Amino acid sequence: MKRSAIGRVVMVFGLPVVIGLAGTSCMVAESGSGDVAQMVAGADRFLTSLSDEERARATFDFESDERERFHFVPPETFARNGFPLEDMSTEQRDLAHALLGTGLSQRGHMTAMEIIELEAILEEREGGEAFSRDPDLYFVSVFGTPSTDGTWAWRFEGHHLSLHFTIVDGEITVSSPTFLAASPAEVTEGRGAGLRPLGSLEDAGRALLASLDPAQLDVAIIEEVAPTNIVSGVELAPDPLSPVGIVGSDLTPQQQDLLMAVVEFYTGVMADDIAALRRARIDDDGIENITFAWAGGTSYGDVSYFRVQGPSFLIEFDHTQRDPNHIHSGWRDFDGDFGRDLLREHLAVVEH
Questions:
Q1: Which of 32, 93, 218, 271 is the most exposed place for a label (fewest CB within 10 A)?
Q2: Pair 315, 266: CB distance under 8 Å
């Protein structure tokens, strides 16, 4: 039996199942390859398990505006569409998580489960005083018809979690935007004590910051006060932020390794094939052209923000709310969000 931060993992009918702190269970993939055929099979199995009415809630046309409608805030401030976990049978939940496992690595899937688990912890602490906190309010949506050679997409989204996968002519994209957030960022006591879903991302950023000498710090720290949220927000097509901070060419080889450790958090949450696509894009950008910027305090517990930006991508991390004990983070592709780059190529071929 393997242990996880959110409970324990046991084998049921030869498949790994997470038993959460609340006693709930869901299927979780041992690892994901990001293979389109696996995604098609996972989506088909999930959709086949639904009734006609349920399938109508879960599916949309690929051209629907719904495909590019997203957020990572509570349900009171952003009404979501799709088919929610709360309305699924146990079998349907397992199939939903099996689909999720085709797009994420095992670490990525466990991170997603920890983020969801925090909703139950918040509900116990807040008692519904501020917002609804419900680990069942996560929605699965499928856009178009799953196919190994067609164009379609799927989404898994709820509070603090927004995951998007777009397949164009049978090819997976880099699967963005990706938002991972956590509140509390660290569970310090009681149920779930020690749970820190985005801890390795924060630790990687702080390790790089700590490695900088005074001259490098003068360049890397762009503001004494951190912004109150990730700067790119939820713009459909985010403009590249000003590439301020210290550039990779001004880092030592060891510091460049620390910079790549920050990037690896977001490549490593994805399934193998998708992670490889993200790494290839980063290689094309060149580490010498990737910048690291910091704002706010430099010690653990301080209000803080950092971002890593290359010519094609942006990672943001914001730890500013609740004392602070609340993190928002995201990965955006300037040209590739929602598969825009592949869709442009697809349309160019069709028109000719």
A1: 218
A2: yes
